[in-house]
TrEMBL record:
The keyword Membrane does not apply. Residues 8-144 form the HTH marR-type domain. GO terms for molecular function: DNA binding; DNA-binding transcription factor activity. It comes from the Bacteria. Pfam families: MarR. Keywords: DNA-binding, Transcription, Transcription regulation. This is MarR family transcriptional regulator.
Length: 145
């Protein structure tokens, strides 16, 4: 079923426009909240993924966060320069790079579960529990292949 036609499509009424605008709003609000920690919302995703043990390599991070490998490399360079993570080559396969948070990286990552929910909860304050659950369900459905 097509929801848009060339005749009925308008940019500001499209789902893509609303999703992108919502993303930009959240990024700006998260970046402002993370300023004191000296990281960005994209770097937050990396640190939280590593802290939770979800990912251990740049490729896994790129796939999970939807960031191309070139940008991921640059972001990891910045985090490594700030001594928040370390990279090491796999002994079994030199093409594979393993990532590990440093003590400072762990310290900052431990703060993130206190920052992100405050930003999200402020944005979601007008939602009922049912609306919140429905929004998550619909977004997950939208993201399915």
């Amino acid at each position: 079923m097509d929801h848009y036609t060339p005749e009925s499509f308008t940019l500001t009424q499209s789902v893509g426009f609303a999703v992108n605008k919502a993303r930009n709003l959240l990024v700006a609000e998260l970046d402002a909240a993370l300023k004191d920690l000296g990281i960005t919302s994209q770097q937050m995703g990396i640190l939280m993924s590593m802290r939770g043990g979800v990912t251990q390599t740049p490729f896994e991070l790129s796939k999970l966060l939807g960031i191309d490998t070139g940008l991921m490399t640059r972001m990891l360079d910045k985090l490594e320069a700030r001594s928040l993570l370390q990279r090491s080559r796999s002994l079994e396969d030199r093409r594979v790079v393993h990532l590990k948070l440093t003590k400072e990286g762990e310290k900052i990552a431990a703060e993130l579960p206190h920052v992100a929910p405050a930003v999200l909860n402020k944005r979601l304050k007008k939602f009922t529990r049912a609306e919140f659950n429905e929004l998550r369900r619909l977004l997950n459905k939208f993201l399915e292949d």
